[in-house]
Amino acid sequence: MKLGVAGYLPGDWRKIDAVATERVRKAGFLGASLFINKPLEADQAELLRVKRAFDQSGLEIAQANGWYEALVNPDNLLRLEGIRGLQALTRIGRMVNAPTTYVRPGGLNPRGHWLAHPENHSPQTFDRLVDSLKQVSREAELEGVTLAIEGHVLSCLDTPQRVRDLFDAVAAPALRFNTDPVNFIGTVKDVHNTSIVLNQLFDLLGNDTVCGHAKDLALLDSLVVHIDEVILGTGTLDYDLFLTRFQQFCPDKYLLIDIYLTKKLFWPGKHWSRKPKILESL
Q1: Which of 125, 160, 178, 199 is deepest in the core (most CB within 10 A)?
Q2: Quick one: which of 59, 151, 60 has its CA closest to 102?
Q3: Which pLDDT score, from 0 to 100, does residue 260 have?
Q4: How many CB atoms lie within 10 A of CB 174?
């Protein structure tokens, strides 16, 4: 596998320069995620400048990511905006030669696309996602781009089987899977034995997996069940199993460390001070 990172570069992609990309490369990463906050408004010349900064440092744009309206929005005009936004991100992914373009299914909670809402799990929400992705996948196939969709227990893609159902329904070669096992841990028993979910993910979706995100989770000491994302290597995710199975299916794909949560430990200033011990051998 190839080790990359998400969240290490400046939050405003227009501020990325060779100094920023060189810092990531010197930290030992081969690639980094590029997040475009408004794909429909991204300037082509500015994108090419950022791509040159990556190239100058020998750093690959490991994944194109960005914000767009929810693909499951029941308001068809807003859902169309989401489709257009992801299509624009797909074209950006091709322009910067990213191996994958990241896809979030979205949700109905007005405070955020990864937050809970009862209708996130309805058949109608799933059907809207299928329709949206059929449209985006046609654009991706024309561009020669691989889409990598992620799931979450709070989204309509709340289990590995539900992701499998999505692939079967969309039936598009361009649509593949971005594995993030922490997102599928939804019960106390899962927290205590993550191998069950990990094996389901790879048994059902291993052949479709084209990228992975690395983070960790822990069950908080509380009378109300609360599963929290924590610093990589300090939680209960079975990384021996995760890395073994990821390498089995994705020997030449990117595993991206999600450091949005780890910056306090591993990015105290402007420089990465040390890698999580669990990944030092990679």
Answers
A1: 178
A2: 151
A3: 66
A4: 20
